[in-house]
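Hey, sorry for the delay on this. The queue was backed up all week. Below are the sequences that define the complex (chains, strands and the ligand SMILES where applicable).
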Amino acid sequence: MINYTEKIPNNVDLGRDRVLQRALEHWQPAYMGWWYDMGPNESHNYEVYLRTAISVEPDGWAQFGYVKMPDYRWGIFLQPRDEKREVNFGIHKGQSAWQEVPGEYRSTLRRVIVTQGDTEPASVEQQRMLGSSCPSMYDLRNIFQVNVEEGRHLWAMVYLLHRYFGRDGREEAESLLARRSGDADNPRILGAFNEATPDWLAFYMFTFFTDRDGKFQLCALAESGFDPLARTCRFMLTEEAHHMFVGETGVSRIIQRTCEVMKENKVEDPSDVRALGVIDLPTIQRYLNFHYSVTLDLYGSDVSSNAANYYTSGLKGRFRETKLNDDHVLTDAEYPVFEVVGGKIITKNVPALTALNERLRDDYIDEIADGVARWQRVIDSAGIPFRLTLPHKGFHREIGNFAGHLISPDGEVLSEEAWKNHEFEWLPNSKDYAYVQSLMSGRVVEPGKFANWIAPPARGINNQPLNFEYVRFN
Ligand SMILES: [Fe+2]
Ligand SMILES: [Fe+2]
């Protein structure tokens, strides 16, 4: 169980490590300062119907109740230790999992943890203004739940930095509160976390696409031979599932509402659809193209010696590493990657060890494709002849083998001119953003009411009715 009687709730017996406890209690006010500055705008007095972790066991870990977000019990929760756990891949395969950081991997591990940790506050910053344009009280509560849990994910990474990396770790923990999403001088580390999330369609796309990158990165780190990192990530994954649910159902409800309005009014042309106050399907496709492509970049270069080193050293595994049926060392294995050669996209086999980023990206794409197929079913069951598609993996990429090439959603290598002629059809343009934001000029917060551009969800949170008062504004 989690000890909530302490200043910092935890299940790591923090009270027995005075030095660590003091270091974290020193960081805590800085974190609160960051939350007041960069957390959800004007939300500090709201009472929000939030779930809080009460136990780290897979069943029944959540308790629901009204909480003012600054009073949320952020803390340190690790999955319980399995004494028999081993390093399951790489050159240390078969050793007992490490309970301390191996000296030779210290700086690498620190970098991995900082890079993951940096994404957590970044997304809170990206989403901080969205409360003022929420489509319902239900959705408002959901974004706040996502925000407090991203805050807790930051705590999770900061715990590791403080506990295992001494002074360097404490300095990194401070830097995590100093960087700002989109800041010119001190931006967040990864590209997608410096993009704006200007509206709720972008928010749902972000939680569907980019939080799912989070899931896959956490899954790979949950295999780590460094046991505290693995255990931390396993617990974070239980929270991540809700974020992706918010994204998938959010987009699905927008599609559903658009289809209903198209059918009722027998319109198909995007401008007619917009005249009825809902988001036309081609605009949804363009948002999808954008969020998918910037998220694919988060996996890094297709061929990467860093990725190979992380794996060989036992620091970062593959998706579902222990379920895979091979030698878990990958000395002779190969994996296909794309390359652009002479205006054509070709496939090339490279050592599997160097292609681990690409492999994780492919695992991610499989799951994304399933989600997009579920969105498609909403369109199909309305009888509307529109196909949502995932663009080619090389579309709009800035990192890896496709960087510097202009690839159409169909996978054609284009000249700059051809790209320019079509870009506005493929990526959201300023008119799209202006239109979507025009629908979201104010917030809808009457219990049970939903904005015109989105369908209500199938059910409420924690079996509450849709007209439940999910947020009290005070
Ligand atoms: Fe997270
Ligand atoms: Fe998340």
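The first strand starts at residue 47 and ends at 53.

I'll add it to the shared folder too.

S.
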